[in-house]
Amino acid sequence: MTRRVGRAGTDALTGLADRGRLERRARRLLTGERHGDPTRRAVLIVDLDHFKHVNDTLGHAAGDAVLVEVAARLERAARPGALVARLGGDEFLVLSAALPPGDDGSSLAGAVRRSLVPPVRVDGVGLRVGASVGVALEGRDGHDLVELMRVADRAMYADKARPGAPAREEAAADPTLGPDLRAALERRDGSGALGLHHQPQVGWDGTVNGYEALLRWSHPRRGLLLPRDVLPVARAEGALTALTLHAVARALTDHAVLTAAARPADPPTGLAPDAPTVSVNVAARDLLVDGFVDDVASLLAAASAPPGCLLLEIAEPAPHPRPAVQALFAALDALGVGVSIHEFGAGAASLAPLAGYAGVRELKLDPALTRAVATDPAAARLVAATVGAAHALDLAVVAEGVEDPGVVPRLRDLGCDRLQGFLVAAPLPPGEVAAWLDRWRAGGGAQSLLGA
Fold this sequence. Notes:
The protein contains 17 helices and 15 strands.
């Protein structure tokens, strides 16, 4: 990633105008309509769709690279004389040059959208970056920047909420993806292009306790597709449950490779060194499909895998335990399969409902909460309370999304049991896990993260 050279009035990451420079330029330019000048300008607000998935899946360095590339494309899409600014995060603003008569800014909005169609390449991976765009026209919608931004912002959110956008529109961009996914799911030989990468989860003594299995589709034309690309296609095809069971089957097959890689020298604390867990993300609707537990049991038997190796990773259950979900968790627990609760702390988090469910083994902190513990006292207090309550329920607490070395000592002091994130390792193909483990051990494991 190439960062722009920062200078006064510019955003340090992208080199675009910052808010101060934008306001100064707007005061000079947004005056023509009021002084009888027939030319007008438009304000466009551009908000990237699903940008959080880039950060959560590939890390913040990849997210920064996407923002830098988007900034460059927006500058090319804007006409000469326009100003492009970064408002913060993944939100941008374009203050147009003088528009031709009769132009209400829609042509510029179209140019912006077209500029974001080609995938953004990050570390060899092609990422599709959609955007929601709102337009406000000088005179018609307001006379100063504040008024125009307010109207453009409302239009942007209306664009984001329109039927079929953005996720379904992105998934439908290539009409061959549906049949291609069906074909990939029907391959029974365990090879094929629909596989998993595994992100390690480590304890403070360096033990690799488990791996989170993350879906990857090596598409022959589109390159490596991430879950955000694949799941809308599976949903449209009615193939979500089939995709979930495929991921479970591949995870159990990969578990043999992960176990073999773990055997050499992991210290024998907690989970046995030759038995890391592998967790697979599962939607609630899949869990409640008739026969799901029987299907999981069949996949365990076919892979000759111990049931205790598998965790099904789900979002936080409803505040009031539902009998059907309780029965399902009990059936999984009887089978020996555990449950992991991810993104805890993202909303109105409460541990109380978990006491009503069997089989829950671990709680994963939301990455935003993990990132905040070193600087936000409220976040640290929430994590401390969560750890205490989780330990009272015999649940392990995993800090997910660990990328900043500065949060590691704080997470240890707060009592988190395990770490997962790009600071430890990126998601790895099964064949690369053994080499990563060698580097992890040679580098001192978790103690190296603490600067010891």
